[in-house]
Amino acid sequence: TDLVLAHLKTQPEFQKAQPTKTWLTEQLTKGTCLVIFDGLDEVPNSQRQQVRQWVDHHMKLYSASQFIRPVVN
Fold first, then answer.
1. Which residues of the chain have pLDDT under 50?
2. Cα 61 to chain center, whole Å?
3. Phi (first) and psi of residue 40, to 5 degrees
């Protein structure tokens, strides 16, 4: 969530809203988010298992939201 918030704060349409970690967590929990993971195929082989586990964990944690991720071996 910290990475997403850091990105949102750089976007003009979110400057006034100033989203918080609590707000983002609520949105993910309610299922109002679409999360797209891009670039997973660029993760070094030595870190792919760890990243895959992290992604899978968050997909389960916020299962009401929609996730799109490429299949990476």
1. none
2. 11
3. -65, -25
